[in-house]
Amino acid sequence: MKTRAKRIEINEQFRTALDLMEGTDRHVFITGKAGTGKSTLLEYFRRATKKQVAVLAPTGVAALNVDGQTVHSFCRFKPDITLDKVKKVRGEGGDLYSELDAVIIDEISMVRADLLDCVEKFLRLNGKHPKAWFGGTQMIFIGDLYQLPPVVTSRERDIFAGRYESPYFFSSRTFNEPSFDMEFVELEKIYRQTEEAFIHLLNAIRNNSATPEDIERLNEKWDPDFLPLEKGFYITLTSTNDLAFRRNKEKLDRLPGESFLCQGDLDIVYLKTDDTKTRRRIRPESIAMMEYMGRTFEGVRAYCTKREEVRTFRIDRMLEIHEV
């Protein structure tokens, strides 16, 4: 059942993007700086469209943020997917792909060129029209190329460099075929900030064109003697996971009392910006140990709600504990 889309300002770029997304079957790449409304546009379109749409993202956290699936999960890819391993889906669920009108991939800057080629082949094998790009399914790519890049490990780098000009999605073989065509829309109006001088400063840093005067103005906000209040709620940004781990451990070690583990049903509520709620319920089988970045953590080993298998969940959400 469709839910009513929330009211947003439909500026010229929004209208162009929506007309392409809803009124045509043309592939489109929608980009824009942070705060220009890319996520708002995606949510508005998904709620208002009459098309059958799948929303994907390259990572689990990114997929969670848009209530979607990862690219790998949707296409049933294993982590080591290559073109020769892409297969037609047979049996249960195979008809889903031919019923889709459009596929949205959010955070497209993180999608590697080789993965996009695998998606193209997968949709050809499973979509409506095997002779059309992406099986005749409209592809809507959303993201900012100034943000997170694709990940290519040191082991893959040499092999990758021999096949693709860059790891970015636009270097895929699909995109470099003369018969492949795509529209481009850039959202320009920034909604997240309204102070023009601050917007100018952010753009200068983004474009690597900041002047000494810009840096001086930015540094006016730096207080070398600042110490967070003990009872204040501050977020510390770090350049590495190791620094973040040390900071968190330092704070945890200062908490009074002894640590303990409780086992039971977890009812996790994610709050969205429009104040609606979605719930994901998992029933823990046991408390398990997890390895992450060379360190050991306690985790919840639980039955996944969608598949009959056991998985270890790691909850990436910020919370403040007031009382135990």
What are its keywords?
324 residues, alpha/beta, Rossmann fold, 3 domains, six-stranded parallel sheet, four-stranded antiparallel sheet, 9 helices, 27% helix, globular, disordered C terminus
Report what the structure shows.
- It is a single chain.
- The chain is α/β, with parallel strands linked by helices.
- The protein has three domains: 12-187, Rossmann fold, CATH 3.40.50.300; 193-226, no CATH class; 227-324, no CATH class.
- The chain has helices at 12-23, 38-48, 60-65, 71-75, 113-126, 154-161, 196-206, 212-219, 241-253; strands at 28-32, 53-57, 69-70, 102-105, 138-142, 183-187, 266-271, 277-292, 295-303, 310-313.
- Strand 9 and strand 10 (310-313) form a beta hairpin.
- The longest helix has 14 residues, at 113-126.
- It is globular, with a radius of gyration of 22 Å.
